[in-house]
Amino acid sequence: MSVFPDDAAGPLGDAAEWFARLQSDTARESDWAAFEAWLTAAPANWSAFDAVERLWVDLDLAPVAAASPEPATGRVLPFLRRPKRLSWGVWAATGGVAAALAVGIISPRLLKPAQTEPVQTIMTAKGERKAVTLADGTRIELSSGTRVDYYFGGNRRWAQLLQGEAAFSVTHDPNRPFAVVIGDRRITDVGTVFDVARLDHAVRVTVQQGAVAVGAAGASPARTVVAGQQLTHVDGEEGSRVRAVDTDAALAWRSGRLVYSDAPLEAVVSDLNRYFATPIRVQNRETGELRFSGVLVLDGEGAVVDRLQAFMPVAIVRSNGVIWISGRR
Fold first, then answer.
1. Which of 81, 97, 284, 291 has the largest count of CB atoms under 10 Å?
2. Is 20 exposed, middle or buried (0-12, 13-18, 19+ CB in 10 A)?
3. What global pTM score does this model have?
4. Among the CATH numbers 3.30.565.10, 3.20.80.10, 3.40.630.30, 3.55.50.30, which is that of 256-327?
5. Residue 1 has pLDDT above 70, yes or no
C-alpha cells in the first residue's frame, strides 16, 4: 500500500484532510467555499491536492486487498480504505452557475471514467449527422466529420469531443454534473443546451440555454459562459474570448443549415470543407476576406458553391478534384 510519510505536513497534510472532509455526508456548501479558498491560495495547494487525488484514483482502481494490520511506521491517511465517491449533491444542489463554478476546480480524473469502465464511441462521416440519447434523456447531436467518446453510468456523466462539432442537450441532475473534454479545455454543466466545436488549433463553446464552466485542470477557477454567449479558446493560450452571439444561428447546422452574418468567406469555406468530400479552396487572401451574410442549405456541395457564386462577387472553377473560388471583377 502506498502511504505518505509521518512528516507529511503542510500542503500535503492539509490536502489529505480536505479530501476526507469533502467525502463526508455532512459536508456543506460552506465547506466547499472554504476548500476553494484554500486551493487557490497557493500553487503548492493545487499540487498537493492533485497528489492526494492521484493516490485515491490508484487505490480505487486496485483490487480490494484482504484486511491486514496497519504498518507500525508511516502515516496511512484515513481515507485510504476504499473511500466512497465524492458527494456532489451537497454543493451541486445549489444549482446554476454556482454549481458549475464549484465543479470547475475539480480535476478531470474525477469526471472521466476509469479505464475499466466501458466508453462508447459515436462517429459521423462527412455530410452525415447523427444523435444519441443517454439513459437520463441527455441528447448528443453530432455534426459532419465528428467523433465523440462518452460514458454514462454510476455517478459520472462524461464525454470527449475528439474532432468536429457536437451539440449537447443535458438533462438536469444536480448530483451528476456533465463534463465535456475538448483539447486542453473542460466544459461542465448541470443541465443546459450548448454546442462545442473543435476548430483549427482552437475550441469554441456556444451556450443556448443555462450556463457552463469552461476551464483547464489545475488552473484558476473556470470561466462561466451563459446563454447567448460564445467562448473561443486558442490551444496553449491562458485566456479565452467571450462574445454575444445569435445561438439559433450558431446551432442551425442541426437542421442542415449554416447561417452567417458578415462572416469572412475564408471562414465559410472552412465550414463547408467539414461537410463535403471535394475540397474547396479560396484563390487568394483578398477573396478570402470578402464578407458573406446569408443562409446556406447543406443539400449538396455543387448547389452550395453555386449559391455562393450567385450571392457574392466570386467565380467558381472546378479543376483536378478541387473547387476553386476566386474574386470576380
1. 97
2. middle
3. 0.64
4. 3.55.50.30
5. no
